[in-house]
Amino acid sequence: MYKSQKVGAIIVAAGRGERMGGIDKIFTPLGGTSVLERVAAVFNDSPYIDHFVIVLTQDNLARGKHLLADKNLTKLVKIVPGGVRRQDSVEAGLNALPLCQWVVIHDGARPLVTSKLIAEVLEAAQESGAAIAAVPVVDTIKSAGEDNYVKSTLDRSHLWAVQTPQVFRFDIIKEGYAKASGDVTDDAALVEALGIRVKLYMGAYDNIKLTTPADLALAEVLCQRKEG
Ligand code: CTP
Ligand code: MG
Questions:
Q1: How far is the CA of 74 from the centre of ligand 1 (A)?
Q2: Distance from the CA of 105 to the center of ligand 2, in angstroms?
Q3: Residue 228: is it exposed, middle or buried by C-beta count within 10 angstroms (0-12/13-18/19+)?
Q4: pLDDT tens, residue by residue, 1-54
Q5: Scanning 108, 131, 140, 146, which has its CA 20 to 30 A from the CA of 56?
């Protein structure tokens, strides 16, 4: 039972934020508090998390450390530099984590995550050793060829949009990374490749990822609603 086991978390925030068009989303304030501080506080305050590491770009390391230094983040053990691909950043986080049996991986760009969702995904992972937050897709999804003509319309009833947190047993995610070949956009893909069953757990539509400037406006409203 994970309640007697150590749970570590990795917050990956070492992306370049290219689709944000020049705004550094990690340091952007929402309701007066930066995205990075918000997400760090959720993990620090979660009773299920024993310790966590944050992964930042080399360029942001000093600023991030300075920003978080006086925030009383007692479970934050290290801030480390990431890599070129998201999976390189996760790997840097895995290498920096102190001993733990479970790992929660979360996008720094999802500041609206809740302690409740972290706990629920952790619980959902107990059966197979892997669970990820996801929501059923709301848009119709089409597959297209290189020429942008539709090839097929996918059956939406089976499609989920993947979020984080993603939770894995430590030995499983370690093995996934040890055997990784090629590029993946989420860690679950590496675990699926091992033949491990990954449980989809109902995330939240407001657990948005800050990707484009429009997301910032939406996140601001969602934060106000949550705190108002
Ligand atoms: N990430 C990371 N290291 C990378 C790439 C991504 O730590 N080399 C992190 C991002 O900081 C973000 C999360 O992974 O918290 C999800 O990635 P994404 O939304 O794609 O963010 P960016 O890669 O920063 O944005 P973009 O793809 O627009 O450049
Ligand atoms: Mg990216």
A1: 25
A2: 15
A3: exposed
A4: 567 899 999 999 999 999 999 899 999 999 999 999 999 999 999 999 999 999
A5: 131
